[in-house]
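pasting for ref
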Amino acid sequence: MIALVDCNNFYASCERVFQPRLEGKPIVILSNNDGCVIARSDEAKALGVKMGAIAFMSREFFEANGVQVFSSNYTLYGSLSNRVMRKLGSFCNNIEYYSIDEAFLDFSTHPYQNLEQVGFEIKHQVVSEIGIPVSVGMGPTKTLAKMANRFAKKTKKQIGVHLLDTADKIAEVLAFTAVGDIWGVGPQYAKLLQKNGFHTAADLLNAPEEWVRKNMSVVGQRTFNELKGIRSIGMEESPAAKKNICVARGFGQLINNKADLQGALANYVSIVAEKLRKGLLCTKQLHLFVETNQHRAQDEQYYRSIDVALPVASNDSTELLHYANLGLDRIYRPGINYHKVGCMALDLIPENQIQFSMFDAQNRLRKNTMMKALDNLNIDLGKNSVQFASQGNGKNWHLRQEKCSPCYTTRLQDILTIQI
């Protein structure tokens, strides 16, 4: 049996953990630069707040209806996600971290006698120890576990646990689930299925297997088998190897000078380098780009990109910063109001498989030692405690986060204090 544990309205729930006064109140989380709504609590959904709603256009509605508005605080969300995943790992050794707020648990080799009770125990421990409410769906396959979880959220919200351990329970969930809500069935396949008279998962299960194979390729065949209770989608115990790492963000305000643009790019390149080292990877090529705001008709529109090859694959911040600056020199144009800059590391390889050059003049052992020291200092002292001068102070380009909550779990000065 496989379980899918999904955190309920995760971003909104994270904001409530350290602010209990928010319980029962409508909450929305905004995108980078506080642009639009990317997450909502149930109360906000009940008010009719739509995903993607433009923040400044909805301000009066939010104020009139007591909607609590927050900038996205990914540091807090990531920290609480790690706590949830560690707790789930105490119930099961075979776990797949599917997303920041979801995980699959494979109980096939566990001697639990009452899996439904295990589901309730997971739900209880996560909310009581971490403060995040979760729903638990269990089924013979990952697809059925997904459907069980959705069924629990839609029809058994107060219970929050649903186990598909009988044919009748499976049939009930299959009939309840529209084809467009089946995990792995995208919009195009959903339209195809509906056009051919298949409206629910139960309808799809009764489709001729030959028709599924012919019209829905291998992916459709796997989903078809999963609905029948045949495991066709395995557990991924480790994330798939990254093909690239990208950091690209819009600015809190427009930039029209090279120094600020260099500072922003240096900051993003440093993040890319840190992620490379954390993943034990190196990059052989950087892709850089700059662009204006396409929604500002009064500005001259400009977009340029460039690929910069490195002589030796690297994850050294100083080296990546050097080549990023060379690339920026090639694509920068004065007199432009820049809205965004980005850096993408391409051609990633494991750091133990670097092909060195006999003409390489870099002391790579020394630089690796320096990068490890830099990373350790930032772990001990806090993120960005030690950084490169070229990153600047970011006052002219940092993301707009006017409603960001404190980083209660990762920043010493933000830890809650209690007066007795």
